[in-house]
Design a protein that fits this description.
about 180 residues, 12-stranded antiparallel β-sheet, 12 strands, about 0% helix
Amino acid sequence: MRLALKPHPDAPAGPVTGIEVEVNRDGSKLALRYRARGRIADVLLPQAAAPARRDDLWKHTCFEAFLRAGGGGYVELNLSPSSEWAAYRFTGYRAGLTPAAVPAVTVTTERGDGLFELNASVDVGGEIVFDTPAAFGLSAVIEDVSGAKTYWALAHAPGKPDFHHPDAFASELPRDQP
């Protein structure tokens, strides 16, 4: 499944002109491929680091996925171009934050003329049970070299950028997409 992210309507134009995300699922494993196009040389990309769980990745260029976990809860995945990542479980809208038990995350990147690609493989086993189609949202925070940020998502709720808002869960992940 391929989906396009939209910039937040109140944000000024930034160096990225478009972001597409390809999403595939095989059992509890998600494959996410984010492709950002534009003036990539003007995007502030975090320095490469050892793959590890790290908080506050969303404060800089970061790619995200939000997955409904049932019962009103959801899981947030933060995927940094540095190869660092984070996974959180919420019991409700911005409530009950705890680290999510995600057994495996791999993040790789490629950069070309006018294109930046982040590929992530995430095993969400134990956190999400895909017994029915799951609502999900995709988003990105893009920081430019001046420190200004633009916010991208499948859909934006009214007001300031809020990827946790129910309106941002704008697509449905089918039971399986090998």
